[in-house]
Amino acid sequence: METKQQVTHLLLELNKGNRSVLDELSAHVYNELRRLASGYLRNESFNATINTTDLVHEAYLRLVGESDYNWQNRAHFMAIAARAMRQFLVYYAKRKNAVKRGGGNLAVTFDERVVSVEDKKEELLALDEALNKLITYDERLCKIVELRYFTGLSIEETAKTLKISPATVKREWSTAKAWLHSQMN
């Protein structure tokens, strides 16, 4: 619990423009960011040039590279980190797809397995497109998908991060999966 409070304190200092806290912040969040990144890349036959460390570094650079900080707390930072990782993987997949064969729509299904950039880049792009539609329909549903599907947070962890009940997360997770399934098929 003390580390979470320290991270929140460091983020608030960063909000005030105190960039001297970046090294200490990095030390506190690095392992958790690695856990998030490995959640994106696990359980797949992944033979790409990107690995967990690359993904962590890319997301961290994007997060602390922004000049306008408005971090509320550690949970907020981690949720934004999850989104930054997803955005980087989508960018990476688009770049690889453009080089390899150029776009095209594919019929894909949504499941709860983590997406691999190399082996599943078309599915990742379709999922990203569906999530971009979902965010306009219901932003919280999109956040639940990002936290559950991409970062592997439990129902309880997702509820705590979003400050809603676990029952609401369960219900909205089911809704989001059904909606994404209909959009991706």
What is the β-strand count? 0
Write down the overall mean pLDDT: 78
Sheet of most strands: none
Radius of gyration: 17 Å
Distance linking N and C termini: 43 Å
Based on Cα principal axes, name the global outline: globular
Number of domains: 1
The percentage of residues in β strands lies in: under 5%
Q: How much helicity do the residues have? A: over 70%
| Coarse structural class | mainly alpha
Show unreliable segments. 43-47, 102-117
Q: How many H/I helices?
A: 8
H and E string: HHHHHHHH
Structure in a nutshell:
Helices cover 71% and strands 0% of the residues.
Walk me through this protein's architecture.
The chain has 185 residues and is mainly alpha-helical. The protein has one domain (2-184). The chain has eight helices and no strands. The protein has helices at 2-15, 22-41, 52-65, 74-100, 121-137, 139-150, 155-162, 166-184.
